[in-house]
Design goal:
alpha/beta; six-stranded mixed beta sheet; about 15% strand; about 325 residues; homodimer; five-stranded parallel beta sheet
Chain lengths: ~325, ~325
């Protein structure tokens, strides 16, 4: 179903509940809030299902949009949810009841809903929601701000390779409504917790460099996390931090897990295939970013992954 | 002079030399290379004057465009150069001879050239150059890539408050030519030298926090720089690093200088006026970002700036 049809379909509904995905990011939250606000401006009763995983980075956007417990929806919409396993526990209830419409941009969409509005060419689902809601008339700033958050966070503020000319055009339209994009950008791209900075500092001071700095192996132990009182939010996407180091072609980030295991994230450039490295340790992923989980201590994990890198280097 | 007029004027010239500003950034370099390439595509002889300050971050873009020593220009254009004191030593020779045209976006433009094409509403001078060169026909990828670098670097990859809807529209057009914007973005926004990371790490480990973390005072001594063998490029814009810390309202970055002085950069949010703080120590700047230079050691500078902050807090 095309977005114009989805826009027309939604106008015929009321008492609409909007669902976001597990471990929600800016795209799913921004889409849900933007769509909810736009529906309300069309005179609809619309709410977003509370998502227990939402971090403090995104909860402020949800204020005033979270469905009360006694809300009985007549129509259920999922946004940015590619598959069944990505529903939250509260969302699974509605998956069993049946999702009426899903709006998504993931090529891995599982078509679990009665109607699917999919455009896999979009960098962010927020782009698609923008095209949908503007079918109803001019987009208000209250609709535009969460959609800007959706688009900007899913593209690393227009930095990542998924960004398209259309992404920039949508951003231009959203900014023209007069939104405070500066505060949002500062919040999402130019703010780091002191604990996060201390984790990064720990990595810089303790990582192992091999081959003249072409290979960097960094580790964060459970003891490190405890000593810094760091949370998962502080450690989020820490693998990207190691990967940005100038001259590093292969970066490995090791996280010690409970139960005597370590989780490894491997980032490589064109000189090495990350999936082949991780496959040797039972993992997988993409050519430039892969992962695996291995038993043992951090030191054992370091030895194992370096051996795997050497093996793939030799075979190449 | 409007950019359409400037485009027509340039088409009537030949043997054109393009000048960039002192301590060149991505905007001035990107504008010069983009304009030079576009002029060549119009059959003109055009070169960029070598800039002795250009760092390795930008020199690759200049390859093939640097004027040979014996080039005798008939027409001289300055790009992104607001004032006379921003000419390089080599450029000053042409300032004396007379600049034929300046293309700029700074409101502080000094009108030193025979003709001025100024649009102070543009986030980057690269936006203006784009509008100018497309008057001559479709923009080629070789022209578009340096202009993308100009626009993206001057806006922090569309993150800073100077970004406008027009900035995004220009980026969309430039991307449509098929440029490798991913490699440029990785280079300019997602690469840090190990020395830079060690400087950041040093700041995190040694900065002083006051008022429950609302005030952060960081310092880099000459001994620190020497120990890490860090260069000015590694320390560039380090004040922004301290300013990104969550919960920090006032950040101070102290750089020890040769000769028993310290240079201080103060960043504040709306809770404190940075210029009033720095004015107490003989400096100045903007409400949210100001600076000053004080005699004495790093420790003396810390004491002096904290006293200045306390004085402005008390007066407020």
């Amino acid at each position: 179903m095309e977005y114009r049809e989805a826009a027309a379909l939604l106008l015929r509904q009321d008492d609409i509940l909007i669902l976001t995905h597990k471990r929600p990011d800016g795209d799913t939250i921004g889409c849900a809030v933007g769509l909810c606000q736009a529906l309300r401006e069309q005179g609809k009763t619309a709410w977003v299902l509370p998502n227990e995983d939402a971090t403090s980075l995104f909860t402020p956007y949800l204020e005033g949009y979270l469905a009360p417990e006694d809300f009985a929806p007549a129509y259920v919409v999922a946004v940015d949810i590619a598959g069944r396993q990505l529903f939250t526990p509260a969302g699974e209830v509605y998956l069993e009841r049946g999702i009426d419409l899903t709006i998504d941009h993931h090529p891995s969409q599982e078509y679990y809903a009665a109607e699917t509005c999919l455009d896999a060419g979009r960098a962010a689902c927020g782009e698609l929601i923008y095209d949908l809601v503007r079918q109803w008339g001019p987009v208000s700033p209250r609709t535009a701000l969460p959609l800007y958050v959706a688009v900007s966070t899913d593209t690393g503020c227009f930095m990542y390779s998924n960004t398209t000319p259309e992404t920039h055009r949508v951003a231009a339209h959203l900014m023209e409504t007069g939104i405070d994009f500066q505060t949002a950008n500062k919040r999402h791209f130019r703010t780091k917790s002191l604990k996060r900075l201390k984790l990064e500092s720990l990595i810089v001071e303790t990582m192992d460099l091999h081959d003249g700095g072409a290979i960097a192996i960094a580790a964060i132990s459970l003891a490190d996390m405890a000593r810094l009182a760091a949370t998962e939010r502080d450690a989020e996407d820490i693998a990207a931090f190691v990967g940005q180091m100038e001259g590093v072609h292969t970066s490995v980030t090791i996280r010690e897990l409970e139960g005597g295991e370590c989780k490894l994230s491997v980032r490589t450039d064109a000189t090495l295939n990350a999936t082949r490295v991780c496959a040797l340790l039972g993992g997988g992923g993409h050519a430039a970013a892969a992962g695996c989980t291995v038993p043992g201590t951090v030191e054992e994990a370091k030895t194992a992954i370096l051996a795997a890198i050497r093996k793939v280097q030799t075979d190449a």
